[in-house]
Amino acid sequence: MRGGCRRSALAALSAALGDLGTVNRWRKKVVSVDGSECWWWTGAISGRGHGRFYFAPGRVIISHRFAFGLVHGAQVLDRVRVLGHRCGNQLCQRSTLSTWWPRRMRRTGGSGLRGGS
Ligand SMILES: [Zn+2]
């Protein structure tokens, strides 16, 4: 193994995030609903209840991670291990409602993670 697999996956994701056709394909599967702040995923759903999005042939990503990548970029996304939903809705694609923390950082009581509104 040359270990290049992960890097090429990141490169493929990075390309997908910058590709208008791919992004539009993702957007078409996302709907907003009256009375809900969430952006609902209407595409394929994994056994664990998360949206699945094929961003390239044979490459699948959890759809709200793709949403996060659209806002923050593939490099930041790559460092994020857990990407939760502040609203508790696993199908929500609205990344502003997601909470996240980098792999190496521990949550030490919440300071710094929730910017004041
Ligand atoms: Zn939501």
Offer a quick outline of the entry.
The chain has four helices and six strands. The chain is of the alpha+beta class.
Descriptors for this entry?
two-stranded antiparallel ribbon; single chain; alpha+beta; 4 helices; 117 residues; 22% strand; binds zinc ion; 6 strands; 32% helix
Characterization of this structure:
This protein is α+β, with helices and mostly antiparallel strands. The protein has helices at residues 5-17, 20-27, 63-72, 74-79; strands at 30-32, 39-41, 52-56, 59-62, 80-85, 98-102. The strands form 3 sheets. Strands 1-2 form a two-stranded antiparallel ribbon. A two-stranded antiparallel sheet has the order 3-4. The radius of gyration is 15 Å and the shape is globular. The termini are far apart. It binds zinc ion. The site of zinc ion has 8 residues, from loops. Residues 37-38, 85, 87, 89, 92, 94, 97 line the site of zinc ion (ZN).
Q: What is the general shape?
A: globular
Ligands bound, unique: zinc ion
What structural class do you assign from the helix and strand content? alpha+beta
Rg over alpha carbons: 15 Å
Low-confidence runs: 110-117
Mean pLDDT: 82
Q: Strand order within the widest sheet?
A: 1-2
Beta-strand percentage range = 15-25%
Helicity level = 25-40%
Number of structural units classed as domains:
1
Tell me the total number of β-strands: 6
Helix-strand pattern, N to C?
HHEEEEHHEE
Major sheet attributes? 2 strands, antiparallel
Our count of helices gives: 4
